[in-house]
Known about the structure:
347 residues; rSAM_sf; eleven-stranded mixed β-sheet; alpha/beta; single chain; globular; S-adenosyl-L-methionine; Radical_SAM_PqqE_MftC-like; iron; metal-binding
Amino acid sequence: MPFEESPHLVFWEVTKACPLACKHCRANAIDKPLPGELTTNEGKKLLEDIAQFGKVVIVFTGGDPLSREDIFELMDYAKSLGLIVSLAPAPSYRLNEETMKRIKELALYMSISLDGYKPETHDWLRGLGNYKYAINGIKLGLKYGIQVQVNTLIWRKSYGELPYIVKLLKELGVKVWEVFFLIPVGRGTIELDIPKEKYKDVIDFLVEASRYDIVVRTVEAPFFRRAKLEYKEENNELIQKLRELLGEPKKNVDKSIMPTRDGAGVIFVAYNGDIYPSGFLPIKLGNVREESIVNIYRNSELLKMIKAGKLKGKCGICAYTNICGGSRARAYAVYNDPLAEDPACPY
């Protein structure tokens, strides 16, 4: 799918406010909104601009988007413009029956983070007692017919629990699992990450997990697409445990590809209107108060190079540049160059 003119996903960080204080938070979220947050009217103007892209997915994220008093008004306006509405709330006490009914009215999708199979694993990262809110939010969302996606960070304490997380998702009835690979931005530090030599094991495991009737996506690990296309029967400790828990897989690998990368098919708007290629790539491209997001997405020289695959190192010569292209955010975090090769690529 070409993304020269329109993205597939627009992320809007509607606020920095959040009741949680997660150790890996990209947004450096705090308990109160920061000055400069887009107003309701400015937000509606932004949504009107986004609608010029066509029927794209608008993801209301944060912080915790439920911290904004006007969040449902903004979601309703986005829906009226023909945008596909998705919400990424923090797993907190706010995910109750009343809130879920409102989300069901306005959003097609909702994502909830679950960063460990054991409560103590998830709670170490996100705060004491948070696990129960994540599980409750997932159950309530599914109860009300929302398409719930579970987000999981690959980190040193969740690594060994990954097969058990798949088992839990199957038991809950979750159909979509989005797996995040750590980028050292915000409060996320490299100390939380798994060793680089374990990346290939995780990628092979995720391909195998997709054979258990669950859609698996990755964030900042686009080499997962190559692994799907080059699939061969693999075996490592994660895969062995998965088969012990769930038996032999029933499906072939889904080899469909959505070749998004930071700034190509994806664009991010911060709480104050600043525009970035993604939430993990902190290179400011402009501000929606001064320029249309449509113009920035289509005309930014950096984004043109990213979309065209004008990359350096092994990412520039790889046969999979167009469908993978490596993590531009990780390249920037490590080499201070968003066009450099992805240092975590296991190929």
